[in-house]
Structures are given as C-alpha cells and as structure tokens.
Write a structure and sequence with these properties.
The chain is α+β, with helices and mostly antiparallel strands. It has a single domain, classed as Cytidine Deaminase, domain 2 (3-Layer(aba) Sandwich), CATH 3.40.140.10. The chain is built from three helices and seven strands. The strands form two sheets. The chain has a five-stranded mixed β-sheet with strand order 2-1-5-6-7. A hairpin with a 5-residue loop joins strand 6 and strand 7. Helix 2 packs parallel to helix 3. The longest helix is centred in the first third of the chain and has 17 residues. The radius of gyration is 13 Å and the shape is globular.
C-alpha cells in the first residue's frame, strides 16, 4: 500500500504510539486515536475473562471516557491484513463515517487506510 513516510507527522506519531503499546504489553494489537483537540489515546488488546476489547475499541473507549467529542484519525497495528468492522464501527460512532482508520504492520509499514464509514 502506501509508504508510512507519505503520512503526515501526526499520523506517523499515532503509528509509533500504537506500535509501542503493542510491544510494551505483548498483545496482538496496539491502537491509537487522535481527538478533535489533538490529544491522543493509546491502548492494547484487552482480554480478560469477563471483558474482551480490540485495541482500537479500547482506545476509543479511553477517548470517550476522557471527554473527546470527535476523532480525527485512528490507527491499529496488527498482523491482520484488514481492519475489523467492529473497530471501524467504534471509530465511526465517535468520529463519523469519514474518519480515517489506518492499518499498519507491526514494523510500522502502512497496509491500508480506509474510512470508518
């Protein structure tokens, strides 16, 4: 797909944060979102007996819990070849259908960029 070098600095920062969350927590996915004020929220996959969230769902939940009104962009770092519909739905709920969802490989290479909607 696109080279991550083609991304603006803020989107590259999201990829770096998501990669860091994935590596630091040894989880399958890391994610980061940026709200309308430029604040970022970072999370990894949550797999408890009673609660399971993808990394992107957890990052969106953190943004909502912190008072974010909208999202500008979202990133998920995963081995997966495409973003899950449930992830795009969570981004769409807060950011709207046009919010970009970037999917990056664990090495930070951008695999895809799709609208949440």
């Amino acid at each position: 797909m696109n080279d991550s070098a083609d991304l603006d600095l803020e989107d590259r920062k999201l990829i770096t944060l998501a990669r860091s969350a994935r590596a630091r927590n040894s989880v399958p996915e890391g994610a980061a979102v940026r709200d309308e004020t430029g604040r970022t929220y970072v999370a990894g996959t949550v797999e408890l007996e009673s609660l399971k969230l993808s990394a992107l769902q957890a990052a969106v939940a953190m943004a909502v819990a912190s008072g974010a009104q909208s999202l500008e962009a979202a990133v998920v770092v995963s081995e997966a070849a495409e973003s899950a519909e449930a992830d795009r739905a969570a981004v769409r709920d807060l950011g709207g259908p046009g919010t970009p969802v970037l999917l990056a490989a664990p090495d930070g290479t951008l695999r895809a960029s799709v609208a949440a909607g």
